[in-house]
């Protein structure tokens, strides 16, 4: 008999199939502390959660029978995915079930914001008949900026058209074609910030999206903008937002999510006259809760019974024979994908992977999944893993082509990752595994290089002139950035050249700006390979 623990409030109707299963018993025990969960989790084969339960490494270590953690919803930021993967615990989610509900909540917030509904309600029930203080604005003919055009952002855009709004959309995977099909004008974040009357964010929280709207963005923002966040706390810098409202830049904000949940009693959003809030209710409808619980229960049953399943967000088991041969390349493949994604500036349309030498003889699909994960993670966040990376690429119209070449010049094995964009940009990174030396990046676009893909790299493009290496070294030294290794590549003397430096820590933004300002230096970019 399998035992399932439900530790957050999840729809009874949704988990009915689990309760009806003859080989499963379900215990509902919500609101437990970490200690309480640690004490009982050892009895269970499956854990079902929403966003309240923080599924920590400690809980998973105590869950010696745990085979699957089911998240009835989208975001898995409350689950330690790394710890789950290490322990072979499958984590699944229900990515589609709450899309419409969250989109509708976004509209509820947008309209409440435009018409001051919560503030007017509070005053009216307090006995004051105030018709002067709550002059609102129409949505019609206004420009809506949508940051993040995935499932929810796309549904928001669709409905905004019915309100007569003009929509500007930004998403690293949004191409002109796709935007046009959705009736959206493809725009940059900067264009949205400068032109939108309303802006709504629908991205995951990743290192890239964290505080993507902060002081510098508020400084150039269209005056009177109204901002909605029903995605994740932290995408918009809360303190900078309050300041922008108080300075009259932002007219108001509606937030369903917070950097820390629940927010502290003295959080500046609470009781601010121009900010309206809800307690992470985006997914809280009868329909969505049933949908996500049904989806997740079905998958949990499959996993417990060793049947095929979908929507796994962490690593599935790989056959040992395949693992032995390919495993040493997994880390390299992911880093090459990530490297290529970081140097590509436009939306990726096609990923071309070429395996040459030894690798061309094997079924390299598991390795391709790691490469795709490396490419996609930069924009889609921690939900991308080797189980879902191919599916995610397809669902975003990103084609991937794998070719094999039997021999390579000088290497026993070579993996090349080329990213192509809609505007014809093409970036290529190739790497190999050298016996005794480990992972190496050996080609960057047309330049031969020889670099260990360590955590922090600095990629500099420059004109091949004397003195430039010295100037770069001096500037980094002055800013306490230690150089571990340096590689210079060029095709012709005096022509276009690149420099790759491995450094011991993250390079501060101001140093990157100073570097880019050096004579004969064209661009300076940090590449993080963690
Ligand atoms: N408030 C709630 O209760 C609630 C409910 C459901 C989902 N969510 C959250 O809403 C968000 C969106 O969910 P979804 O189902 O649409 O996810 P999704 O994965 O379908 O879409 C997210 C999109 O964000 C894009 N993105 C990533 N980095 C970006 C960047 N720097 N700039 C612009 N776009 C970027 C991705 O390319 C992707 O298309 C997630 O954070 C999810 O956890 C909140
Ligand atoms: O990521 C999600 O699915 C939403 O944030 C909903 O979270 P909840 O299930 O805790 O309401």
Automatic annotation (TrEMBL):
PANTHER family xrefs: D-ISOMER SPECIFIC 2-HYDROXYACID DEHYDROGENASE FAMILY PROTEIN (AFU_ORTHOLOGUE AFUA_6G10090)
Cited SUPFAM superfamilies: ACT-like (SSF55021), Formate/glycerate dehydrogenase catalytic domain-like (SSF52283), NAD(P)-binding Rossmann-fold domains (SSF51735), Serine metabolism enzymes domain (SSF143548)
Lineage, top ranks: Bacteria, Bacillati, Bacillota, Bacilli, Bacillales
Name recorded for this polypeptide: D-3-phosphoglycerate dehydrogenase
Similarity comment text for this entry: Belongs to the D-isomer specific 2-hydroxyacid dehydrogenase family.
Species: Paenibacillus zeirhizosphaerae
Class in the EC hierarchy, top level: oxidoreductase
Reaction equation(s) it catalyzes: (R)-2-hydroxyglutarate + NAD(+) = 2-oxoglutarate + NADH + H(+); (2R)-3-phosphoglycerate + NAD(+) = 3-phosphooxypyruvate + NADH + H(+)
Segments forming domain ACT: 457-530
């Amino acid at each position: 008999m399998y035992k399932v623990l439900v530790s957050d409030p999840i729809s009874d109707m949704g988990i009915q199939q689990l309760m009806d299963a003859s080989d499963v018993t379900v215990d509902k025990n919500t609101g437990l502390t970490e200690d309480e969960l640690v004490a009982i989790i050892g009895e269970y084969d499956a854990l079902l959660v929403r966003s309240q339960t923080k599924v920590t490494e400690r809980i998973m270590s105590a869950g010696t029978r745990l085979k699957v953690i089911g998240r009835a919803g989208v975001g898995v930021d409350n689950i330690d995915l790394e710890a789950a993967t290490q322990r072979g615990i499958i984590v699944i989610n229900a990515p589609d079930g709450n899309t419409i509900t969250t989109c509708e909540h976004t509209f509820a917030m947008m309209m409440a914001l435009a018409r001051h509904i919560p503030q007017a309600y509070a005053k009216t029930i307090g006995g004051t008949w105030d018709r002067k203080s709550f002059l609102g604005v129409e949505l019609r003919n206004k420009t809506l900026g949508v940051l993040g055009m995935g499932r929810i952002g796309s549904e928001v855009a669709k409905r905004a058209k019915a309100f007569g709004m003009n929509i500007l959309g930004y998403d690293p995977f949004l191409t002109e074609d796709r935007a046009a099909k959705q009736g959206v004008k493809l725009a940059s974040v900067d264009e949205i910030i400068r032109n939108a009357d309303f802006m709504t964010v629908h991205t995951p929280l990743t290192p890239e999206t964290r505080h993507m709207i902060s002081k510098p963005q508020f400084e150039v923002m269209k005056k009177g903008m109204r901002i909605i966040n029903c995605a994740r706390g932290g995408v918009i810098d809360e303190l900078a937002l309050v300041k922008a409202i108080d300075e009259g830049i932002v007219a108001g904000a509606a937030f369903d999510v917070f950097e820390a949940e629940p927010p502290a009693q003295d959080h500046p959003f609470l009781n601010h006259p121009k900010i309206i809030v809800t307690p992470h209710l985006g997914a809280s409808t009868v329909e969505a809760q049933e949908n996500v619980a049904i989806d997740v229960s079905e998958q949990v049953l499959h996993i417990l019974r060793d049947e095929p399943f979908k929507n796994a967000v962490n690593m599935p088991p790989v056959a040992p024979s395949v693992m032995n041969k390919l495993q040493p390349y997994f880390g390299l493949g992911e880093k090459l994908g990530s490297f290529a994604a970081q140097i590509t500036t436009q939306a990726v349309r096609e990923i071309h992977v070429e395996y040459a030498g030894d690798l061309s003889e094997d079924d390299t699909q598991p390795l391709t999944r790691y490469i795709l994960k490396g490419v996609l993670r930069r924009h889609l966040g921690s939900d991308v893993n080797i189980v879902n990376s191919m599916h995610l690429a397809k669902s975003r119209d990103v084609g991937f082509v794998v070719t094999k070449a039997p021999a390579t010049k000088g290497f026993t094995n070579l993996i090349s990752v080329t990213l192509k964009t809609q505007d014809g940009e093409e970036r290529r990174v190739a790497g190999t595994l050298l016996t005794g030396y480990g992972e190496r990046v050996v080609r960057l676009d047309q330049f031969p290089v020889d670099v260990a893909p360590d955590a922090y790299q600095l990629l500099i493009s420059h004109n091949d002139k004397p003195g430039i290496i010295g100037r770069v070294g001096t500037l980094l030294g002055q800013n306490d950035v230690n150089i571990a290794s340096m590689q210079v590549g060029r095709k012709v003397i005096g022509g276009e050249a690149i420099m790759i430096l491995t450094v011991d820590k993250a390079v501060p933004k101001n140093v990157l700006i100073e570097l880019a300002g050096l004579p004969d230096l064209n661009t300076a970019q940090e590449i993080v390979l963690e």
